[in-house]
Specification:
The structure holds 2 protein chains of 2 kinds. Chain A starts with 7 loop residues before the first helix and ends in a 13-residue tail after the last helix. Chain A has a single domain, classed as MetI-like (MetI-like fold). Chain A has 9 helices and no strands. By secondary structure, chain B is an all-alpha fold. Helices cover 76% and strands 0% of the residues of chain B. The chains are: A mainly alpha, B mainly alpha. The interface between A and B is large, with 57 and 49 residues.
Chain lengths: 219, 239
């Protein structure tokens, strides 16, 4: 194995920074878009028993499709653009996001919901101000898993030219040069770790009522 | 840094979606495509061989570890961190790294597929073990069972549904990811995807992707059926 070429790093700081940004510009919209789709679907799955199996089953089937296949299947629709990468990843985050949101909503004590309704809140208000906040720890656990997965999977999109740090793998592979590959792996791991830490902080800030309890379940 | 990777892909010139689908259907069903050394039948078997072997090796490594962590209730942080690490580790990077380190062999493929399978199996096995009611294991110890007996006769059977779920999830992910074998010049269904990308043959790429997806879904259905028949007597089993 060729040793790491340390001289490569200072010469490519700019590349690493721009690839990291590209990486984030694919992973972050994918997770946000995934949440946007998953939340309403999960609420429906939580409320309507008949659709529950259908929604959860469908998202499970989507999960079985290889991520590379997603990107490729989207090519005729979205072409070779960044949206192909984002859309493919979005679909991949859905299964975790939907499942955790449904589980989170299920875990809300029915007393809390009933109390809110009895006090005159409309169902939508109850959902937004009582149920979703109480379900937040489990939902956030899903968001964390989905984010880490998305960051790791962005590199698959390097096959279609939008891989963020994954470009370093293709680069190293084509030139039989180990250093960029190691840099890419380490930066991806670091990025996933940082994103996870940010989400933990966000959850801490969003759930002031949970701070004095022992660790929220889910993670 | 200029654009790397495969040549930019252009929309298949003037092909409507309907035409594309009909080409795809033809590709998937023509007998010529299925036979021969590069035929779908051969690629399908290669893909199955990589996937099953990697999942099996992953299970051999991961099951004892998951059982040990679950039984002793120690090193739980190991299971949790392993899961996070496994999710964050980019498989494409790992396969490239092992390939550059070890040269042309099946090692890069198996190392990265096993690395994909192990965390999933460990965490689900561990989760299954911790879900076992401590009253039950206490009772088992109370009637004089040794630690090993408790593990084999009490904990493992009770944890089995989640262990199976872990194996299923691992197999799905391995089947999906085994396409990377073609990336380092081996076979499997990924061959169609990478060759198609290189030749800008969208139909071939789509055909490969559809085959991998169908294989993953079918294997999952088979394992789900096995799981159901194993635990038929348990109303609240699995998941």
């Amino acid at each position: 194995m060729t040793a790491i070429d340390w001289g490569w790093f200072p010469d490519h700081l700019g590349d690493m920074a721009s690839l990291t940004l590209e990486h984030l510009s694919i992973a972050v919209p994918a997770v946000l878009l995934g949440l946007l789709i998953a939340l309403p679907l999960a609420v429906v799955a939580h409320r309507v028993r008949m659709l529950r199996g259908l929604i959860l089953g469908a998202s499970n089937v989507l999960f079985t499709i290889p991520s590379l296949a997603f990107f490729v299947l989207l090519l005729p629709v979205t072409g070779l653009t960044r949206s192909t990468a984002v859309t493919g990843l979005t679909i991949y985050t859905l299964v975790v996001l939907i499942r955790n949101t449904v589980e989170g909503l299920d875990s809300v004590p029915s007393r809390a919901r009933e109390a809110s309704l009895a006090m005159g809140s409309r169902p939508l208000r109850t959902l937004l101000t009582v149920e979703l906040p109480l379900a937040l720890p489990v939902i956030m656990a899903g968001v964390r898993v989905a984010t880490v997965m998305a960051i790791s999977l962005v590199s698959v999109a390097s096959y279609i030219g939008y891989g963020g740090l994954g470009q370093l793998f293709t680069d190293g592979f084509q030139r039989s040069y180990t250093t960029p590959v190691i840099a890419g792996v380490l930066l991806t791991l670091l990025l996933a770790l940082l994103a996870d830490a940010v989400l933990v902080a966000v959850q801490y800030l969003c759930t002031p009522w949970a701070r004095h309890r022992t660790n929220a379940k889910g993670a | 840094m200029h654009a790397l990777g495969p040549a930019p892909y252009e929309r298949q010139g003037g092909l409507t979606v309907l035409e594309l689908l009909s080409h795809l259907a033809h590709w998937l069903t023509s007998p010529a495509q299925w036979s021969g050394s590069g035929g779908i039948a051969v690629r399908l078997l290669e893909h199955l061989r990589y996937s099953l072997l990697a999942t099996f090796v992953g299970a051999v490594l991961a099951l004892p570890l998951g059982l040990l962590i679950g039984h002793t209730r120690r090193f739980a942080f190991l299971a949790i961190n392993l899961a996070g690490f496994g999710r964050a580790l980019p498989t494409v990077g790992l396969v490239t790294l092992v390939f550059l380190a070890g040269g042309l062999s099946m090692w890069p493929v198996y190392v990265s597929l096993v690395a994909l399978a192990v965390p999933v199996i460990v965490t689900n096995t561990y989760a299954g073990m911790t879900a076992v009611d401590p009253d039950v294991t206490d009772a088992a110890r109370g009637v004089g069972m040794t630690g090993l007996q408790v593990l084999w006769q009490i904990e493992l059977p009770l944890a089995l549904p989640l262990v199976m779920t872990g194996l299923r999830l691992a197999l799905i992910q391995v089947v999906s990811t085994a396409t990377i074998a073609a990336y380092v010049s081996f076979g499997g269904l990924g061959r169609y995807i990478f060759d198609g990308l290189a030749q800008r043959d969208l139909v071939q790429v789509l055909g490969g992707a559809v085959l991998v997806a169908v294989l993953a879904v079918l294997l999952d259905l088979v394992l789900a059926a096995v799981q159901r028949s194993l635990f038929r007597h348990r109303p609240a089993a699995a998941r």
